[in-house]
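User:
Hi there, any thoughts?
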Amino acid sequence: MRTVLRRTLSRPGPLTLEGLIFVLLAFAIGLAATNTGTNLLYLIFSLMLAFLIVSGFLSIRTLKKLTVERSIPRHVVAGETVDIRLTLHNHKRLFGSYGLQVSDCLSDDTVAGCCYFLRVPPRGQATVSYPCLFHRRGLYAFHYLTLTTTYPFGFVRRSVEVRAPLEVLVYPQILPWEQLGLETPPDFGERESRRKGPGTGLYGIREQQPNEGARWIHWKKTAQTDRLMRREFEAEEKKTVCLMLDNALRQPDDPKACESFEHAIVLAASAAHHLLHTDHQVELVTRSGRVPYNSGPHQRYRILRALALVEPVALGDGLPMRVSVRGDTATVMFLCEGQAAPVAYPRGTEVYVVSAPNSDTASGPKDRGETTPGRPRHLRQPEVVGR
């Protein structure tokens, strides 16, 4: 994800401490030269003024004909440090740019990070990256960058602001399975796929080929047919898993309910990540929509994107939560504390009620396969980075 930024007009900034001392000293020497009429003092005063003029000219020259290219990783996860790369291009033919500090700012004027370029050669470029940590999921908007320099003498801080609108989607935080507090390990069993492959179920019997080993020869069938017969097995696939996240809250504006909802999102995202990593087919169902069954890394990013954008809705709003009921599907539901469970859901559903970190709700185990809405397992989600 890249954004090319172009320079706007530079503006002089405040004097640095060194610059303030230099100006006061020049003013004192000029006053003394006026009072005494000493030619040496006039010469020193003129040299100091020349220093200020040259400093302003060179700082303006340093900030001219620059473009910046911002490069952000395509997939960003909350709680994980990412490297944002800034490439500074100098299009001047003869003059280089020196001592540039680049500050990357968000739409709320928060500084995401800073880089320092010691020198950018003429008709050349330099690349520096800075670490950035997003604490929460959601859409972040980069707004502008500020290029600042005190070159050459450090008397005046001159800066230029460049507009650089860019939105970055941050996925929910992914926690290790051991920190989720879920009783079930990330393995819901396997099912037969009705196709040939490595497995334990018998798919069929065929004649042995000359280049095949003798391990899977079916000796009984070989004795009956007087030919070497070989067993073929049916491939096994992981069971499909349906993750249900009820984003309908009784009080969507309640901070405690929103905090529990954010913890539930972290749970659902982490569970989907680990299940897809073990080759399960996973579906996500919310009142804002669904992500159909699929597997692989692309499905992981589809689910994480949906969870990054999902927002709480008022109870009674949103779409009804409907699950594709299959015989080989495991269903896991995440509810927020104080939220009423649906009237009916598939048999064998595991229900987890997520509490805020400062809640006093007790945790009680729930037997797998229990379908009574009044007996969910209460769960206190571990602290999320940055909260």
